[in-house]
Amino acid sequence: MKLLVCLLLALLAVPQILRAETLALPDEDIEGLLILHSRTLSRQFPRLVLDMPQTVLFAGDSIMEELGPVLAQMLAGKKNLKLVQAGRSSTGLCRPDFYDWPKAMRTFMRSEHPQTVVICIGTNDDQTVSDGGVRHQFISPRWQLAYRHKVEELINIIEEYGGASVWVSPPIMGPNALRPRVFAIREVIRQTCEARNVPFIDIWPTLADANGNFQYSLIAPGGKTITLRARDGVHIAPAGNKMLAKAVLPHLENMLQTSNPPDISTTEPEALPGQ
Fold this sequence. Notes:
Elements: H1 2-12, H2 30-44, E1 54-60, H3 62-74, E2 81-87, H4 101-112, E3 116-120, E4 129-131, E5 134-136, H5 141-160, E6 164-168, H6 178-196, E7 200-201, E8 217-219, E9 225-227, H7 238-257
Parallel strand pairs: 1-2, 1-3, 3-6, 6-7
Antiparallel strand pairs: 4-5, 8-9
C-alpha cells in the first residue's frame, strides 16, 4: 500500500502536459496504471522515438581478430552503431577446453546485446571434434555432422537472445597441406548456413589470383607490388584485410539496414483489461 501511495505521489509531480488524461482509476492496479501512463505519453508526443544504437559483434579466430577492426574503421561514419571486437587468436569450435565459444557467446549476448554477430572461424578446426562425448576424426562423415552441430549451436545461441548471425568463410590458405582441410571446413559451414537460411559470405576467392590459386601478393595497375598475406600463408597483411573488408561490407550494411531498432511511436500499446 505504501508503494502504491508513493507511486501516485510521484506521478502527480509530473508536469501538467504529461497528465492530459486521467492516469488510473482508484480500482486499477499498478500494472494498468503504468500501461495507461505509457499511452498518455505516446498520444502527447507521437513522434517520440527510442534512439537506441545497433550493436555489431565481431567474433571468431585470428582472421576476425584482424578483419574486425578494419570493418569497424569502414563503419565508423555510421550513426547509432556500437562495434564490439571479440576475435580471439588460435580459437575454434573443436577445442572448448581451450576456448569455449558457446559459453563466450552467451556472455557476449547478455552483456553487449548485439543485434548482429559477424563470425569468421574454422582455420584452427582441422582436428578431432567431440559430439555427445564421442570424438570423431577429421574429416569423416561423423566429424562433418558433429562440426555442423557446433555451428548450429552458435546460431541457436545468437537467435535465442534475439540476434542474427552472418558467417564469413575462411580465406584461401597458403600451405598446400592446410588448404584442402580448411576448404572442407568452409564447406560444412556454408552448407549449414544454407540449411538454416543464415547469411554466408564467401571470401575464400577474394585474395586468390585470377585462376583461383593462392597468392602472397599482387601487382597493382601502376606496377606496385601489394602484399596480401603474412609469411605463414595463413594470416592476412593490412592490404589483404582491406580487400576482405570491402568484400564483407556491402553484405553487412544490407543486414544493418534491415535490422533497425523499433520505433516505439508506431507501437500500439497493450489495451487495459476491459477496454
